[in-house]
Prior knowledge:
Layout: H1 7-17, H2 22-36, H3 41-54, H4 64-73, H5 76-86, H6 92-108, H7 116-136, H8 141-162, H9 170-181, H10 188-233
Helix pairs in contact: 1-2, 5-7, 6-7, 6-8, 6-10, 7-8, 8-10
Amino acid sequence: xxxxxxxxxxxxxxxxxxxxxxxxxxxxxxxxxxxxxxxxxxxxxxxxxxxxxxxxxxxxxxxxxxxxxxxxxxxxxxxxxxxxxxxxxxxxxxxxxxxxxxxxxxxxxxxxxxxxxxxxxxxxxxxxxxxxxxxxxxxxxxxxxxxxxxxxxxxxxxxxxxxxxxxxxxxxxxxxxxxxxxxxxxxxxxxxxxxxxxxxxxxxxxxxxxxxxxxxxxxxxxxxxxxxxxxxxx
Length: 234
C-alpha cells in the first residue's frame, strides 16, 4: 500500500491543527514516513544529519542578532523615527512606496540592503509606524499589526519581483543555465529584459495598494486628527 507513505502529511496537518510544537511535529512525521517506507531508524538519523550539514548555512541568520543589538544600542531606530516625524505630509503608504522603489533599484544594482531581520524590523517598520502616527495620531492595535504586515510584504514584493533584474543574479544564471541545457538559445540579458516589466508592474500595483491603504486610514482617523485643531480655533 503505497498510500501509507503519505501518513506524514496527515501527521503534519493534525499536529498543526492541534497547535503542537512545530519542530516536533515535523520530525515525528519524517520519522513515521521513513519507517513505513522501509528506512531504518539509523538510516533516518543519517539522512537527517546529512540534510542538516548540507543546509547549515541557513543558520547564518544568527549572525544578524549582534547587528540588531548594536542598532538598538546606539539609537539608530529612534533617530530614523524622529526623521520621519519631521517630514510633513508623509503617509505610511507613501513611505512604503518609496521603499519599494529603493528596494527594486537595489535589486537592479545588486545592492543587498534587504532582510526582515536586519532591515525591516529594526528600521522600516518603525519608520512606517512613525509616519502613520505623525499623520493620523495614535493607531489602534489592529492597524499597527497591519503596518507591520505591509512593511514585511513590501520587502517580499521588492525582493521577489526585482531579484532577476541584475544580470549576474543567481536566479538569472540559474534560469539561463537550465534553458541552455534544454537546448534553448537564451542569454542572461534577455532574461533581465523580461524581468524588468514584471518589476515595474509590481511597483505600480504596490503603489496603488498603498494609496488605497492611506485612504482607508484617512477615513478612519482623519476626523480624529482634526478635532484638536477645531477646538483650538474655537
